[in-house]
Input
Amino acid sequence: MTRQLKLLALAAVAVLALSAVSAASASAASFFTTQSTPTFIKGLQQTKNVFTDTAGTIKCSAAEFTSGQISSNAVGTVNVHPTYGGCTAFGQAASVSTTSCSYTLSIVSVSGSTGDGSIVIDCSSGTTIVINLPAAGCSVTIGAQSFPGGGNTIDYESIGSGLTQAILITSTVTGIDWAGSGNICDKNESASLATYTGSVRARGYDQVGFSTQHGIFVG
Output
């Protein structure tokens, strides 16, 4: 084999090696791996979910994330519909309506049993997440927006084992744009952006009724 052919052969091997590394990296960046398909996710609050703006905090005693059918054993993004209950805002009873909105959760890197990623708030055209404070006669709205990463993080951790293995999803999202209307909810145009913190334990199930659990994990 001539020197030129040897160099070409070595170059080809290098390209194949780099391709293998890239494929492995892409594979590692899955949102979760599931023991079987189809999978339906249901996540329940583990630590209190809290929305904080300049007027105060909205705290909920219950939070639930549910997904539609997921047909692949490993995906990089999952769309979940959030619902919240037992909420108070600025010391008063509050309700949170998320009817037309969802969260798209993405994972961008994985290390062992943990990962981190980003979140997008998706809402149907002309709709928002609405937080109502009946006693104060006012409301706060949060529209569609994205948080690409950096300080806006979603952390993932595999917990448990076997059929009950689950993913702990912890939110520390900053820079949320919001609007307020009426009384204590009014937002001055110079007011700072809001934050959202809290965690849910996401489990995998084999049907939309969430009756039979199977394991899901980061990987």
